[in-house]
Design a protein that fits this description.
The protein is of the alpha/beta class. The chain contains 13 helices and 17 strands. It has a seven-stranded mixed sheet, with helices on both faces. Helix 3 packs antiparallel against helix 10 and helix 11 packs parallel to helix 13. The two termini are 33 Å apart.
């Protein structure tokens, strides 16, 4: 099929829920994707932070293929050795006590929300169910995770939204304290607001959140859907902040390209979610777990994490040299670029035409390259970005 044929079929048969770039991708290797017309693209997106090992990594392909040939799905009515291996590895790497495996970041966040409310209900009874999130946050697209998202643009059309959420200003501890009342059971934050424009929280602010939560027996929960799985140069971003949340949610890069999410909780929450209180048909699917097991075996070594940090520093330093760059922010290989001309969306579209895949977030460019991207691929991509930015 040609690109135009694919585009026409998409317009005819699919709900128009996405603003797509003008290319159709059909194959890839490493950080290079290939379009239906044979054109190659350097990928600075990794499928919005999903392809942590890049396209079609040999080890990942073998792990997935071998598992697909063994057994593809068994449901959660039976024990799964791959599930337990992934859960054990996550707990060993983080010090958390229990894991719930699901299919996406939104599902992981739903589990976190339910865990917080049930913990509070079990201990304090009704009336202590409110969760504080931050202005400019993003936690998913279900009715409940949209309600938890602190951006007015998402609070439309789908009324009534789930209630029980309030929004505090990021990096303003006094505003957060003003929201902490007797009906609050949790504070739920992204340490770097990804969809909100790659906005990091201050370390002192995060430490203060943990102190307040510990004092009042309020759960401190961190959404690491985008920042987790070594994206920021630590396995989870909270580790770089020197704090220990009660709950951490994860997805995106965990499966390296297959849908899997995880909600990790501390020892005091280990028995909150019992049989029948939560579940999923596909969560912890054997093939997705085989993919996650391969990813976890690769991205967690000190050498790999050091390389992620080094590549991130290199990219940020090179970006500072490009014209039309006003500000570069982020951590590790999660990078935002504010443009002087306020033309991020136009730049992103032009980059695709010139052979570079890049993201936007609000009014800036966003980079989430595969963690395994080579310096040669980085330089080729930056060369294209420079050409477009300075045109």
């Amino acid at each position: 099929m040609t690109f135009e044929e694919i585009k026409n079929d998409e317009q005819q048969y699919m709900m128009h829920t996405y603003g797509r770039f003008q290319t159709a991708l059909v194959s890839g290797k490493g950080a290079v994707a290939k379009g239906v017309d044979g054109k190659e693209y350097i990928d600075f997106t990794s499928g919005i932070g999903v392809n942590s090992l890049g396209y079609c990594d040999d080890g990942w392909v073998k792990a997935v293929s071998d598992q697909a040939a063994a057994i593809q799905h068994i449901s959660n009515l039976y024990y799964s050795p791959l599930q337990t291996e992934v859960a054990k590895k996550l707990c060993e790497l983080t010090g958390f006590d229990k894991v719930f495996l699901c299919n996406s970041g939104a599902e992981a966040n739903e589990c976190a929300i339910k865990t917080a409310r049930k913990y509070s209900f079990d201990k304090y009874g009704q009336g202590r169910q409110k969760i504080i999130t931050l202005v400019n946050s993003f936690h998913g697209r279900t009715v409940t995770t949209l309600a938890a998202t602190g951006q007015d643009v998402f609070h439309n059309y789908f009324f009534p939204f789930t209630d029980g959420f309030e929004f505090a200003a990021a990096n303003d501890i006094d505003d957060l304290k003003a929201h902490i009342k007797d009906d609050v059971c949790a504070v739920f934050v992204e340490l770097i607001q990804g969809e909100g424009g790659v906005m990091p929280l201050d370390k002192s602010y995060v430490e203060a959140i943990q102190t307040i939560c510990n004092e009042k027996d309020i759960l401190f929960m961190v959404d690491e859907v985008q920042t987790g799985i070594s994206r920021t140069g630590d396995f989870y971003c909270y580790q770089g902040y020197g704090v220990k949340p009660d709950v951490v949610t994860s997805a995106k890069g965990l499966g390296g390209g297959l849908p899997i999410g995880a909600c990790l909780c501390s020892e005091k929450l280990a028995d909150v979610m019992s049989a029948g209180t939560h579940g999923t048909t596909f969560g912890g699917n054997p093939i997705a777990c085989a993919a996650a097991k391969e990813v976890l075996s690769r991205v967690t070594t000190p050498e790999f994490l050091a390389e992620v940090r080094a590549k991130g520093e290199y990219i940020r330093a090179e970006l500072e040299k490009i014209g039309n760059v006003k500000e570069v922010r982020g951590r590790g290989m999660m990078i935002g670029i504010v443009t002087e001309k306020d033309n991020a969306k136009a730049v992103a579209a032009q980059c695709v035409e010139n052979g570079l895949l890049i993201l936007t977030a609000k009014d800036l460019l966003r980079l989430l390259p595969p963690l395994t991207i080579t310096y040669d691929e980085i330089n080729k991509g930056l060369g294209i970005l420079k050409k477009v930015m300075e045109a």
